[in-house]
Each structure stands twice: as structure tokens, then as C-alpha cells.
Design brief:
mainly alpha; globular
């Protein structure tokens, strides 16, 4: 894939693992908007929404992750 786009995923996951959820959500959302389905990103976005107590969005993203094979 495009290296610049791949950095969005890498940076997003780095923010996720350091619990900087708003920044992680921004980068991961941009990544999946460009690349389409990515179960790791969807799962991470789901976890972020869970941490933010937005359970409807968390369930929606976990459903997307499950559909593509988490």
C-alpha cells in the first residue's frame, strides 16, 4: 500500500497503545476511510469508543471487525 497512508495506521495504533484515544481515533479513522476494511483498526476503534463510553459506536466497529475476520 501507499507508505504515507500506512503511517496513519502506525501512528494511530501508537496513540492507541499509549491511551491517547482522541489522536488515535483521528488517525485510524483516516486510515480506514482511505484503505477500506482493516480488522485491526476496526477493533482498535471499537476499543477506543468503549473507553469513551460510546457503546453504540463500539458495537458498530466491532461488528465490522468481525465481518472481515477478527
Amino acid at each position: 500500500g501507499d507508505t504515507a497512508i500506512t503511517y496513519f495506521k502506525t501512528i494511530g495504533l501508537s496513540y492507541y497503545y499509549t491511551e491517547k484515544y482522541d489522536s488515535a481515533l483521528s488517525y485510524l479513522s483516516r486510515y480506514v476511510a482511505v484503505t477500506g476494511d482493516d480488522e485491526k483498526c476496526y477493533s482498535s476503534i471499537s476499543s477506543i469508543y468503549t473507553e469513551k463510553n460510546n457503546l453504540d459506536s463500539a458495537a458498530a466497529y466491532m461488528s465490522k471487525a468481525c465481518k472481515i475476520g477478527i
